Hints:
The protein is mainly alpha-helical. The chain contains four helices and no strands.
Amino acid sequence: MRERFLAPGTYEIRHQLAITAPADVVEAARSAFLALRTTRDRVLEGVTADSAAYAELEADTDAAIAELRRVMRRDLGVE
């Protein structure tokens, strides 16, 4: 799992976004990335998909991704 976050392109895309996107999109993308990374780390620590902790992680990730979509749509003018 960790290697996917270190795979070529993962951080490069974030840096490209930071150059080209408005600040609110960059921040939402960062929040989504951190939520995904936190989920990865907690799973590696032993959190299982049937636990309450995982449900909370999933809800946090879903919310972060929904916010990212919202600000990206607003930036594109397609709210």
